[in-house]
Amino acid sequence: MRTRTRHVIAVLVAGLMAMPLAACGGDDEAGTDSFSVGLLLPSKAVPRWEHSDKPLIEKRLKELCSGCTMEYANAENDATRQRQQMISMITKGVGVLILDAADTKALRSSIQEAKAAGVPVVAYDRLAEGPISGYVSFDGGQVGRLQGEALLKAMDDKANGGTVVMMNGDPTSPNAAWYRKGALSVLTGKVKIGRSYETLGWSTENAHANMSAAIAALGPDRIGGVLAANDAIAAGVISALKKADVRELPPVTGQDADLDAVRRIVKGEQYMTVYKPFKAEADAAAAMAVALGRGEELRDVATTTIDSPTTKDIPSVLLTPREVTVGNIEQTLVKDGVYTIDQICTRELRPACDTAGLTR
């Protein structure tokens, strides 16, 4: 497989070298933009990837580069599949890759192969290892701090005691450690961490199993709050608590502002989520991809630099996340056009929405 990959890349490089300048915009008749951008997302377990990020990136690419096209693939939490998808896109001749790595370490060699083929890679949402050309994400430490601060506030208000269960993300994602570190910077010394789990694949099912184990070990009455790293994990946590017949749910955090999570917040089942304005992230990634495809520097797009374990001074955009609770859904998600009140407020939720002030 390695020999074949090297052969494919060698052929591709030779082909790129032989391409006429008109394909890169050197000829007025050919137009200024005619390259393809490959978008590789990590999974379908988290709704935002398919429902928000993909269409937003595609839309912004077209706005910035009317002649550009987009190739898309989803790895479905399989790093081997994502590697194959990358090679396929390189073979097809994409000019730039936007990569949200299913496994940031496992994709390192594929990123090296992309560079050898002259295809720059923009790391999206997760900081992949290898020679990436740009990085766009949110400040993961701030995500964790927002979750920790909200959990402390909710636990104080409910007086449920000081034991927290940490339901962390997938250990293959560096973001999971980033979120956890931010949360612990707030929680350490103020609560007891009763149990801490890693959630493979950010999976609701795995989160349910882990939370069931925590309930069995600690007892439902001793759990004062749950630091759930994202909304898919929060869904598993809440389903496990309900299955254990916990009538008064402890406060549970989340992240990604999934529609189901927003509805749980309205119902009072989930305390908060972290909203990461996806449009800003998608816009920055598209701008980076178009600049790189045109052979331009990223200084006009990047606002800072960041180091990965393998690469220094990566041009980066780190955006600011926002806390969402029942009291500010309208001022954040509805105002930004993420959801309408009609989308959030199903017939079943109409009384709760009225109580929360979510009126049409």
TrEMBL record:
Keyword set, alphabetical order: Signal
Keyword Signal among record annotations: yes
Major place of residence: other
InterPro entries according to UniProt: Bact_Solute-Bind_Prot2, Peripla_BP_I, SBP_2_dom
Ranges annotated as spanning the membrane: none
GO CC annotations, alphabetized: outer membrane-bounded periplasmic space
Residue ranges of every copy of the Periplasmic binding protein domain listed in the record: 37-297
Cellular compartments annotated: Cell envelope
Signal peptide per UniProt: 1-25
One GO MF term: carbohydrate binding
PANTHER family reported for this sequence: D-XYLOSE-BINDING PERIPLASMIC PROTEIN
Protein name: Solute-binding protein
Organism for this UniProt entry: Streptomyces flaveus
